[in-house]
Amino acid sequence: MSTQPQQPDPVPEGAVTEPEQEQDLPAPGAAEARGAGGEGPGPDAAGGPAVGAADEQAAEQAAALAELDDRWRRALADLENLRKRHARELERERAAERARTAAALLPVIDNLELALSHAEADPGSIVEGVKAIHDQAVATLARLGYERQSETGVPFDPARHEVVGVVEDPEAEPGTVVQVLRPGYGDPGHQLRPVAVAVAKRE
Q: What is the spatial distance between Cα 203 and Cα 167, in angstroms, rounded to a whole number?
């Protein structure tokens, strides 16, 4: 028996043949849209869960930045309020100190006015009155922390003395204060003014 494939029967001339069934072709881009297993598009193809997670993370970061900005602005406001409060307190302390100093000088002014009122009636008493007022003023400065400095015969101290002259004095050691030209008030580091002195020079 022959094994050759059978040939189709010849189509009679003029007979109408049925059209062959067309094979469906894949749509353009369908292969790219399929997953590795031949399934539909993956989760990232249409902005799935990964895009949503990124948006959520961006929102959290924006909220954190907004909170930090708010904290920074609040800290700046607190610092500015603290600076203003400190300035007000400092000004109050300065005003109070000026008032205490002025109040301490009021008795000196009162005694000066009293001495001047008696000057015409008893001119000789004005000298005693001025001396008493001088002593009162010096005592007032001492109470404020500025004692009078007018010593002689002490070594020159640049922290306390200001040299305004040099004299020859054979009885004094060189560099010794031999004359006070203007008294000073206060100690080194807390001084209204230094003592203006003349010192002995070296021969």
A: 10
Distance in angstroms (rounded) separating the CA atoms of residues 197 and 153: 11
> Scanning the structure block, which residue is given the tokens 């067309």?
22
Which two structure tokens, joined as six digits, stand for 85?
């409060």
By the 8 A CB rule, do 188 and 159 touch?
yes
Output the pTM of the full model.
0.53
Query: Per-residue confidence of the chain (203 residues) as pLDDT tens digits?
Result: 445 555 555 555 554 454 444 455 555 554 444 544 445 555 454 555 667 788 888 888 999 999 999 999 999 999 999 999 999 999 999 988 888 888 888 888 888 888 888 777 777 778 888 888 899 999 999 988 899 999 999 999 999 999 999 998 888 889 999 999 999 999 888 888 999 999 998 76
**Which two tokens mark 90?**
């400092």
Q: 59: which residues sit within 8 A by CB, 6+ positions away?
A: none
- If one counts every other C-beta atom within 10 angstroms of the C-beta of residue 200, the result is 20
Q: Closest Cα to residue 154, out of 186, 180, 190?
A: 180
Distance of CA 154 to the CA centre of its chain: 46
Length of the chain as a residue count? 203
